[in-house]
Amino acid sequence: MGKIIGIIALKGGVGKTTTTANLGAVLAKEFNKKVLLIDANFATPNLGFHLGIVDPESSIHHVMHDKVLAHEAVHEHIDNLHILPGSHISRKVNPFKLRDKIKHLKKKYDLILIDSSPTLNEEMLATMIASDEILVVTSPDYPTLSATMRAVKLAKQKKTPITGLIVNKVRGKKFELSLNDIENATDIPILAILPDDVKVLEALSQTAPIILHAPKRKVAIGYKKLAATLVGEEYKESIGFWEKLKGFFVTEDTPNKEEINRLLAREENKS
Question: What is the pLDDT of residues 34-48, one digit of tens each?
Fold first, then answer.
């Protein structure tokens, strides 16, 4: 049986859908997992745009309206990576039917990633109910942290386990919230810190995940490390000449906080 992971954020613009697409691509390409992406942002679906699917003949909306079965609305993007996109013009759906509509797909996929609504509504609740665990995407600023705390509280109320936080669009500026501030406020471990990178937008313009468009960028490496954690594996980063040379002069290698968090999560995912 596969695992369903809901990817949520209670504020638009933090990169939730970008994270869903890139994480799915990494799991499929780098770790040879069979992955399905589902757009459960029923009101404003955008996941298909990230992978070049603009006007699908069949979608999650058709599934929710009982016009097709879920597996009949699945589109193949690359080997091992499939997507169940949304329709941009459709009648309103009952989001709480989501769990029953997709639960049988766990037999066909190693991992199913659900891109949720960015609003605290029935759609987000439906994602939480349908998921085995949750990843929360946030950014290092006070308005987003406030929204993230609300999303975390809601997930805990619904008793859906929260695997960790993804801190996205980090610029490394002094005015940004520290990682300790974010962890202390949410009481959730940070598993990934992803830098703000214009290459992500460049990749989106070409409807390609950043890990395929620019695989050596730090943000792409961050997705790879996170993906490895989710499947209980260790990501071994290839090191260039200058990094190796620098290593000769480093006498102490102290892991940072998110590396420790990933190690703990990786051990849990092994069992």
Answer: 999 999 999 999 999
